[in-house]
Structures are given as C-alpha cells and as structure tokens.
C-alpha cells in the first residue's frame, strides 16, 4: 500500500531536522571529469625536430646531395641496360656459332625469330582484311535496309493520297460512295441572314469585387456620370 497520499507526521523542512541534512552545506562529492587536467603543455623532445635542431640543419646542402644521388642512380641504370642488351646479343651469336655446319640442313631456316615475325605479320594482315570485308558487308546491308524503308514509306504515302481523294478513286468506289453535296434545309429560304447583327446576349456574371460588380457599375452610370 502506498503512503504517497498520507500526510506526514512532521512536515519536511530544510535544515537540521530529523532524518535531514544541512542543505546549506557544500557537497563534498565531485566527478573525476570535473578535476583539472592537461595543466602542462607538451614540448618537442630531442630528435623530434626541435627549434635548435632545425636551426643547425643545412637544408640546401641536403637537397643538393639528394639530387646528386638521384642523378647517379639514373646514369648507372642507363649504363646497365645497354650492357644487358649487348650481353644477350653476344650470347645469341655464340650459340649460332657453336652449332656445327654438319647438323644444318639446307631447307631449315637459319633465323626462327624472323619467320615467326613474318607469320605474325601475315596473320595480322589477314585479320585486317577480314575486318574490312565485314565492315563493307554491314554498311551495304544497312544502306539496303534504309532504301527499302524509304520505298515502303513512299508507297504508303501514295496509297494514302490516292485513297484520300474520292475524285481520283471514283471508279473503284462508285458503288459505295455517294458524291452528292449535302445541303442544309435553310440554305435557300428567304428569311435567312436578314439581320445585320445578332443581338448580344447578356449573361449575369457574379464578380466577387464591390468596385467591378454590375450593381456598382449601374449605380455609377446613373448617379455619378
């Protein structure tokens, strides 16, 4: 059973009452996040690029040495590549010289690489010729389709022209089409078109504006003008 609605025997008062604490006293509890932290700046240690170290360094000299090293590496690399090419060519020449003349046949080609390159060139030329032939065939087929399409459109247009005019197609449609001109019943009467102008029909239109309404306009014409 709850006691929230029951009256207290002694009303709650702030201060030194029974079961109460002094509300005016400062609390001694505080969070660790409220404590002061990072109260000291961090400085660069030795070896982390301090001001004295940067002041004593000669950046221009270091840059020149780095550029000189890169140039030396590039020149040595360019010198190594021709030496490798000359070594491979000399090795091939030695292999050809070591082959005995008795083992050579008159029908055998001396240079296999040249024959392979010639065969590759022939295959490439054949493929290019086949590609050109396929392109020509496709272009001719496309042109033929476009011509047939234009002819069909022209035929349909001429059929529409001939069938749309009954005078040109009168012989084939004589039994179905009536060529008589239909007239109205009042085309030849005496009293037709006698008045110069038809009377204007006035329609009452409601305008939701007191200055442009019909009543205001009549009132101004009658009493003001």
Automatic annotation (TrEMBL):
The keyword Oxidoreductase does not apply. GO terms for cellular component: catalytic step 2 spliceosome. Residues 42-84 have a biased composition (Basic and acidic residues). The keyword Zinc does not apply. Signal peptide: none annotated. One of its GO terms (biological process) is mRNA cis splicing, via spliceosome. Residues 1-128 are annotated as: Disordered. Residues 105-124 have a biased composition (Acidic residues). GO terms for molecular function: RNA binding. Keywords: mRNA processing, mRNA splicing. It comes from the Eukaryota. PANTHER family: CELL CYCLE CONTROL PROTEIN CWF15, SPLICEOSOME-ASSOCIATED PROTEIN CWC15 HOMOLOG. Belongs to the CWC15 family. This is CWC15-like protein A.
